[in-house]
Amino acid sequence: MRPRPNFAPRKVNLRELMSRTIRIKKGADIRLKGRPSPQVEAASATATYAVQPPNYQGIVPKLEVKEGAAVQAGSILFHSKEHPSVKFLSPVSGTVKRIQRGEKRRILSVVMDADGKGESRSFEKIDPATCDAQRMKEAMAERGFFPFVEQRPFATVANPEDMPRSIHVSGFDSSPLAPEMDVVLAGREAAFQSGVKALQCLVGGDAIHLGSRKGQKFFDGMEGVNLTVFDGPHPVGNVGVQIHHTAPINKGETVWTLHAEDVANLGETLTSGVYCAKRTVAVAGSEHASPKHMTTTLGCEVKTLTGGSIDEESVRIVSGNPLTGSRTEASGHLGGLHRQVCLLPEGNKSKFLLADGWLGFGFDKFSLSRSYPTWLLPKSKEFTMDTCNNGEERAFVVTGQYEPVFPFEIYPVQLLKSILANDIDAMEKLGIYEVAPEDFALCEYACTSKIAVQSIVREGLDRLMKELG
Amino acid sequence: MKAAHKLLDAVRPHFEEGGKLSKFWVVYDSLETFAFTPGHSTKNGVHIRDGVDLKRTMFMVILALVPALLFGTWNQGHQYLLSIGQISVADPLMMAFMDKMFIGAVKVLPLVVVSYGVGLGIEFLFAGMRGHSINEGYLVSGMLIPLIMPVDVPLWMVALAVAFAVIIAKEVFGGTGMNILNVALTARAFLFFAYPKQLSGEIWIHQVKASADAGLLADGYTGATALGHLASTVGKAPTDAAATGVMDMFGTEGMFSLTNSFLGLIPGSIGETSALAILIGAVMLIWTGIGSWKIMSSFLVGGLVMGLLFNLMGLNAYMTLPAIHQVVMGGFMFGMVFMATDPVSASQTERGKWIYGFFGGFLSIMIRVFNPAYPEGVMMAILFMNVMAPLIDHYVIQANVGKREKRMLSTQEATA
Fold first, then answer.
1. Domain residues for A90?
2. In this structure, what is the dihedral angle of CA atoms A421, A422, A427, A428, given to the nearest 10 degrees?
3. Which of A105, A358, A387, B301 is the most exposed place for a label (fewest CB within 10 A)?
4. Which residues in chain B have Cβ-Cβ distances shorter than 8 Å to A388?
5. What was the ipTM of the complex prediction?
6. Please, what sign has the CA dihedral across residues A188, A194, A195, A196?
7. CB-based contact, B348 to chain A, within 8 Å
8. What predicted TM-score, i.e. pTM, was given to this entire model?
């Protein structure tokens, strides 16, 4: 077996070591109204399902089906041009309704008409306990699980040919209006355990890292994981933050990350032989009448989750969380990696300066800056926030604003400036290998100058990846 | 407010591309975005944005300047009436309140108007040329500049200084956020070096020369500031008669006593005299989180440390002045709260801010005592630290880079 690297010892105090609890102080919880209740409801089946290549970073799709082709759940729709073993499977049985293309004939989505028969391609049942790394990789590729594996550096879909140093799974989501992972995974202990065992085949026993939230019970007794308990505000649930505080990524190292629900789906697919693309989604936001959790399948129609009719002039539908998600419509489909649909009021009306504009008192405006009086209100108060930009884009002026919400030992502004200056050497030195755009989401939220921080980080990662070939 | 917005919408076509007034688009745009936060909604990335923007941030700083502005206006009238003996120090401060405010306002308002008029005019010009929207940076600089001017400075000099500062210190670097030097201090430094003669002696109290010529000047009034008096003691032994005479003015009964200096009842630049008014502004800046408390506190510590070191040396009368008295005099407090904390020209790393602030305060007191040709050391010290700030940041960041490299090497060793 390949020798495993020892990680540089992280400085921990004795108390942390004993309980393996890491408390992260930097960050912020944006207290949005409309958090999902723990109630779970099964969403009704929808007419169409879609797999959308742009949801997966760095994927250029090569189609394996044509419009009109009959598919089963688990049939291959397309694969990655660069890494053909990254295969994308159909979540349902039916026919390929249309292949939607955008500019330069880029494929935006492959839409299936579901026939409701629930026919499924059957895979060989695999016991993860008795499997080697190569066989497990092939099995995962065959069962279409590589699209759900993200790698760092670069925050793209993982390359199956790589040997990751370690695999990291965050056991909870701390983003605004996020689903409760204990609700998402309820009753799936065995499936999750099988998934962990499968990942163990790839990297060995001590290289699976799992971060759970303080007080969370689900992962107690889970075997084969390095469990670390985290405590603190968002983005503590971001896997990147957890990696940084347990086993930071050095230049030249690669790690893989998965969503906890996909770990359970992987376990279930391997043991049952049937492709499982379950999605438990938090349907939330101030514009939703009864925010809750719903179970559905990858790529379902958004309107079955939101229910009712939505005035899309005044309500924005976000697939994903309000900080990193993408805008969609009621007729659109749930993003491939998303577990959240949020309904937020549109902020496309101008606001008079003294009323609710930039100079108003703002007793109802949530802000991380203390220039609004709401920071004095009790922490239990929740706010409605619209999608207004609340100002225009400016150059970097205010300093010391990103650091308090960025729990990395990295200088965020300097890293951003090195990206803007296209200074590859400086990007490397300043720690770009450890970050993903989502880790900067709170910086972007807090920015006084309204800079598009996440897209700058994405640009930097893409440029670096290109440079390194 | 709907009517106002309708009006703006109605005239909009004239300013848009192809309209008669399209050259003035910047003016229209800045007015509209000033009156109404635009209904631009988020596109990619985050869907919700914090309520704070640069306009609000800058406005908070202006609010924090209001106590110093109001006090300064009053104090200029107060000093004038004292200098011609119409009132005496024994009179209640509120006596002739309206007279004092009026005399002050007549001098201060034109300064504010000239500063904003010239500064914003140049900003509009550059924004128009570059096709940018107006940046809010000058809203604060425009208020800072009058507050660090002597009361009788000729308006044309202010206009010249503002033009120099905005063009040379800011616009040539690319505008707000890109400058290396603090814009307001650059304006002050320009006057200091371009017109040294006019800026010394006779303009710190309103019409002090005319009063002297007319024989109206009260006893003890020369029109010099506290630092001006103190500078005259440098080079003399502490026991020298002239030096002790000056130092008496700083005793408990003197014109520049600690109480008077703290409250600001002394001649000096318009906004700088009252440590109390400035500290009220400091509380507002720290409360809203807009001014860096790290810079302010380390700046204060730096000044006190240098003051104490001088106390220990005691080589001349100036050095024997208590450190606490040093920091409430002259522009120290104003520089500490409003100039050193300018986020663009200060250190940008949190660790760097401690270093930057400390040396800013330290050098301020050092320059003023060592070099009587520069009675106001704060200006020189902050401008110097502005230049040094990128260097400080460089080393702070290198330490972080080094840490990461070390981590990588130790991992490689462990693997090997």
1. 42-121
2. -150
3. A105
4. 37, 39-42, 49
5. 0.91
6. positive
7. yes
8. 0.92
